[in-house]
């Protein structure tokens, strides 16, 4: 049963009150407002459905697991949903929209998810480790954006790794996914598992996120996943040692005629972005969206509402820097006339 509560009222202030009244070329996210200060929520995926912003998050908790190997201490067991009304007068949180024990094939670790709507149904895409300890991506459905969601009995065929993100373009839906180290992307080449996973050595092209068009049923892939290649200014793929290479947390959005692929660099703790002319890429690296935040992980989403663009992200400031106890916040994101994005300071 879902647990729904109103978190706070914003006294009819503008929707995201860190929004600025004119374009700028540098912003601060350190003092941006949180969705909730009483309970933890991370890995926000924000979308606009029916005139409201809906945000889907993992729910962090004080897990007894202390082994940090491959992110074992990120031991999330359920997803939460937030709704912000158009005037910003209240934020409503609904917990337990999908629980680990409700997924027949999953053993542990419900990491970052995303949701898409097609016609009158909502599809929640999520990663979890199966009983062999391998991350797969599953799908759950609901007739309501706040759930509850019912998981399919098996993971999606042909999927692997973590951080699914859904992008709709001209009526087609695309699933982007992948994450290094604990996300297990290094264990695959050409969509096939390796006997022993490996991250490319310095000087070699970096591993890329994956993307595939979804089938009409939204429950399967219509094609084999392709690499989302990020190029440098000379048109060559970013190298494995490049501080701006992809690590996890892929996200796609479109502004004007430009497609933006944004992602976390993981070990260098920034959100970067690259631009292209179609959802598959290749994309050319352009810069940093968000500088490092408090905590090890950085994960984001981007959406448009009321003619403005917003960045949702998390940090671990409210937990005193405990990286597995994170809170979601938000601020305005600015696209500059030249197609670049104004960098936001994370702290």
Secondary-structure map with pairings?
Layout: E1 3-9, E2 26-28, E3 42-49, E4 52-58, E5 78-84, E6 90-99, E7 106-108, E8 114-118, E9 121-130, E10 135-142, E11 150-151, E12 165-169, E13 172-177, E14 188-189, E15 192-193, E16 209-213, E17 226-228, E18 230-231, E19 248-255, E20 258-264, E21 271-276, E22 283-290, E23 300-305, E24 308-315, E25 327-333, E26 343-345
Parallel strand pairs: 2-26, 18-22
Antiparallel strand pairs: 1-6, 3-4, 4-5, 5-6, 7-9, 8-9, 9-10, 10-11, 12-13, 13-16, 14-15, 16-17, 19-20, 20-21, 21-22, 23-24, 24-25
How is this structure best described in words?
The protein is mainly beta and 347 residues long. It has one domain (3-345): Tachylectin-2, Chain A, CATH 2.115.10. 0% of the residues lie in helices and 43% in strands. The chain contains no helices and 26 strands. The chain has strands spanning 3-9, 26-28, 42-49, 52-58, 78-84, 90-99, 106-108, 114-118, 121-130, 135-142, 150-151, 165-169, 172-177, 188-189, 192-193, 209-213, 226-228, 230-231, 248-255, 258-264, 271-276, 283-290, 300-305, 308-315, 327-333, 343-345. The strands form 7 sheets. Strands 1-6-5-4-3 form a 5-stranded antiparallel β-sheet, with no helix packed on it. Strands 7, 8, 9, 10 and 11 form a 5-stranded antiparallel β-sheet that branches. It has a 5-stranded mixed β-sheet with strand order 18-22-21-20-19, with no helix packed on it. A hairpin with a 2-residue loop joins strand 23 (300-305) and strand 24 (308-315). It is globular, with a radius of gyration of 19 Å. It starts with a strand and ends with a strand. 44% of the residues are buried.
